[in-house]
Each structure stands twice: as C-alpha cells, then as structure tokens.
Amino acid sequence: MKEEEVILVNTQDEQMGTMPKMEAHEKALLHRAFSVFIMNDKGEIMLQQRAAHKYHSPLLWTNTCCSHQREGETNIEAGRRRLQEEMGFTADLRELFSFIYKAPFDNGLTEHEYDHVMMGSYSGDPKINPEEVADFKWMSPEEIQKDIAENPEDYTVWFKIIFEKFFDHLMHHNTNHES
Question: 72, 95, 113, 119: least CB-packed within 10 angstroms?
C-alpha cells in the first residue's frame, strides 16, 4: 500500500507540492492538516482516545478527529471523510479558523501544520474504528480545560495547542455553546 501523501504549503496555505506523510514529519515541513471538533446538543465535545498501536501519541486523548487533506479535496470533504473513517458517522462541518503550529514528538517526528479547525454537531454514539481509535467520551469545554491543566500528559501535544484556540473561539463567538 502506498504511503499517504501530505500537501506541502507555504505560510499563506498555498500548495508547494506533496510528500509522503512520514518524510514530511521527519523533516518538519509545513503541510496542510485539519482538526474536527464535534459537539452534542448539551454543548459537550466528543474526544477520541488514539489507538494503542499509533506510531505517535498512542492512547492519548485528542479532538474528535484530525488528519491531512488529500490533493483536490476541500477541507470540509476531508473532515467528513476522516470523521466517517475514524468515528463511523458524518456531520455537517463548518470552518472556524486556521493557524500554523509546530509540535515535536519524543520519537523524533514533528508536526508542522497549517491546521484548518472545523466544527460540527452530532448527538449519537460513534461506531469507532479500532484501527484508529481506542475509545471516546463527551466532556464539556470547561471540564476539558480543567483536565488538561491537571493531567496534561493524558492529551496529545497538538490538542493542547488547538483546544486553547478552540475554547477561546467558543467563548468569544458563542458558537453552539451555552455557558
């Protein structure tokens, strides 16, 4: 099976080419990515626990799903595809914001991503793909913020970065969230 390619971009999110995913992470090259947050009708966020055999951040908690766009795929199409592949459902998604971050891992790989953050609504239970996901749970944004402060080692490096921006967005835009 051919290794998945990521889309290399510049700081304006303009495509500069493609590269095998592992090589881009070894070289810490900026590439396009997305992060999906699914919220239920109670204002809780669905978190996923990464599968135990993942090559980085195994068994850590993170946002509902995240991955990389494929060439010719919109951010929304990519988010819906991965939501189905990882969590077993789809939802209408909307883009909230994007930003660049760089996060090195203990295994020598680095995430350097132009991340498009999206949000959708779903109140059912997912049908998680055990190849991708070990477990899921619903938590309020306030509970997540408190738990990250108390147990930062339980969460992926990128989720701690993204969640802070997502929480700030929720508080300032009152996006689907009652306080």
Answer: 72
Query: Per-residue DSSP letters for 8-71?
Result: EE-TT--EEEEEEHHHHHHHT--EEEEEEEEE-TTSPEEEEEEPTT-SSSTT-EE-SEEE-PPT
66 is catalytic: yes
Beta bridge partners of residue 103, listed in sequence order: 111
Summarize pLDDT for 59-93 with one digit per residue, the tens. Answer: 999 999 999 999 999 999 999 999 999 999 999 99
* Residue of 65, 66, 86, 111 marked active site: 66
What pLDDT digit, counting tens, does each position of 9-39 carry?
A: 999 999 999 999 999 999 999 999 999 999 9
Can you give the pTM of this predicted structure? Answer: 0.92
- Give the count of beta carbons closer than 10 Å to the beta carbon of residue 94: 12
